[in-house]
Every structure is written in structure tokens, then in C-alpha cells.
Fold this protein.
Amino acid sequence: MESSTKYKTVDDYFTALPKDLRGILKGLRQTIKEAAPQAEEVISYNMPAFKQKNILVYYAVNKNHIGFYPTASPIIAFEKELKGYKTSKGAIQLPIGEPIPTDLVKRIVQYRVKQVLEKEKAKK
């Protein structure tokens, strides 16, 4: 990916991807949409993201992996299930060439939706 390119839309981001990676990312995008049907797609930090009041998750293609960025708390909450993946404070590396763990991604996204909605409710 050309890091100097500034993407205005998620479709712009996808258009810039090589075809083989585009297919992988479209699957991830669809999985997130299914898990958060009310969320809107945006570009944030020059990456595709899903937002529902706040950002739920980001995702992006990197050289050897797909970066999935659900913020820090799901990394802790799903720690056991993420054992086979390289993780950091707010990121999960999904290796290119391995299937996307769609069930786990859905549950992480649903966890984030619940977090954001609870935070909104607490504000009121």
C-alpha cells in the first residue's frame, strides 16, 4: 500500500489494493458489517473503520498481515482465543494466506458495539 496516499473513502482504499488482497479484505469488511449493521464506514487514520457513535474497529493491509484494530479492551477480553495470533495493545495481526477467523471477528465487533452503547447510556 502506498503510505503517502490519502484515502477519502473506503472504496478508494479498496481500489488501491492488489486484487488478491482486495478479496481478503472484502470478506473481513462483510464480516464486520454483519456484526455491526448500524455502523457507518469511514476512513480514520487513513484506514477503513466502522463507526457507531465512536470508532468500533479499524482494519488495514500490511506487508505480511491484515491489521485488525478493535482497541485495547477486546484484546484482553478475548485473550485466550487470540493465543495463536500476534497481538499488541490494540491490534491483532491476521496472517495473509490464512483464513480470517470470521466467528471471532464477529464476536469482537459485537463486543465493541456493546461497549460503545453502554458508554453512551452511561453518559445520559
